[in-house]
Write a structure and sequence with these properties.
Layout: H1 4-15, H2 20-26, H3 33-39, H4 46-56, H5 60-63, H6 74-87, H7 97-108, H8 110-113, H9 115-121, H10 126-133, H11 141-151
Length: 161
């Protein structure tokens, strides 16, 4: 039988720009464990499967090989729609976009876009995002692109104006 879980896991991880060690750290796995999952040597338990699906923002069905297209969680889809509606007010904010976007995201959907959740999703220290929210920090271009993709925004929304 084809290892669809391992193949999907590798594809989702690489699509998000994550290294195996990044995901292992976020999931508190021993080094090499993710490689074993991706190669079909080992399988995670049910609890860990749910955590992986939540972290990669796909359904368990997709992660395990069922539908061909990833299904976004309803909570994340709703949070993105709410955020996009709220962000229509800050389109012309220029350099102040990142702090405003982080603040609005947390207000609109704290469960999906709270600083702790975003930091976990982006494998960042929460203090880094807090500094960005206050306007005293910045993020590398690749992390900004990941953040934009996660929030459902066009990539240029978070780039410096």
């Amino acid at each position: 039988m084809i290892n669809q879980f391992g193949t999907r896991l590798r594809q989702l991880r690489t699509d998000r720009g994550l290294l195996q060690r990044d995901l292992e750290e976020a999931l508190t796995l021993r080094p090499g464990t993710l490689s074993q999952y991706e190669r079909g040597v080992r399988e995670p338990d049910f609890d860990l499967l749910m955590v992986i699906a939540d972290m990669l923002e796909v359904s368990l069905d997709y992660l395990l090989g069922r539908p061909e297209a990833p299904v976004e969680s309803p909570a994340l889809a709703s949070a993105r729609r709410q955020l996009q509606a709220a962000l229509s007010q800050v389109a012309a904010a220029g350099d102040a976009r990142l702090p405003l976007i982080l603040e609005l995201a947390e207000q609109v959907a704290p469960g999906q876009f709270g600083l702790q959740r975003l930091a976990q999703r982006l494998t960042l220290n929460p203090a880094t995002l807090k500094a960005c929210r206050t306007g005293t920090g910045s993020l590398p271009e690749t992390t900004l692109l990941q953040l934009a993709r996660h929030l459902g925004l066009p990539p240029d929304w978070l780039q410096e104006a």
